[in-house]
Sequence to fold (249 residues):
Amino acid sequence: MSAFHAVAIFAAGVVAGTINTVVGSGTLFTFPVLLTFGYAPVTANVSNTIGLVPGSAAGGWGYRRELAGQKRRALPLLLASLLGGIAGSVLLLTLPASAFKEIVPGFIVIALILIVFQPRLARTIRTRRSSGGEHAGVVATAAVFASGVYGGYFGAAQGIMLLAILGLALDDDLQRINALKVVLAGLVNLVAGIIFVFAAHVAWAAALLIAGGSILGGVLGARYGRRLPPAALRAVIVVVGIVAIVRLL
Fold:
């Protein structure tokens, strides 16, 4: 690995850690970078998942005040995310690599659509917030499980999915909902990462560089990320996502 490659992967980790904490779509930065530098798609996905785990932990710590008092309602959602992450990671390891290359471009398209329409989604959540309750119901918990399966398999924009699910299901401040999202998405990455360590081929140099960058990004995201211009951020994510689709196809 050249010095340029190392710096680029670390920088992508910083960006991904920041974005995952703020909204969730950081994989659309790190995954294309790894593809560009010649990593096989499944290896890139596995290494990226492991690398982003520390960033999620840093982001969760940064949101610890918003997480206060959410333990009771978080427990069933944590269990749903845990089981979903296990199911998704097992699917990644059992399905052929060719299936991943065929499926993931579609997932990236879905992620980009969610990112483009995120402002409208946020407005919908705000207008319907009063219809939510203090705890997520059965349907919302099942949806969190489904997002965990998606996150364990690939994960781009899982955070946006979770924000939509939790925002419509819970009557609470958006920052507290976002804090819960960071923990749930981080748990999916953690359980998938543990499975990948023992059962998949990991590019450890890339994973460690992403991990270092994502820790810094998680701290920056919790502290300063909310000040990022949303329109510019979405535009960059869309461009990077399109690059990933072209690279896979």
User: Anything to note?
Assistant: The CA atoms of residues 82 and 187 lie 7 Å apart. The longest helix spans residues 174-199.
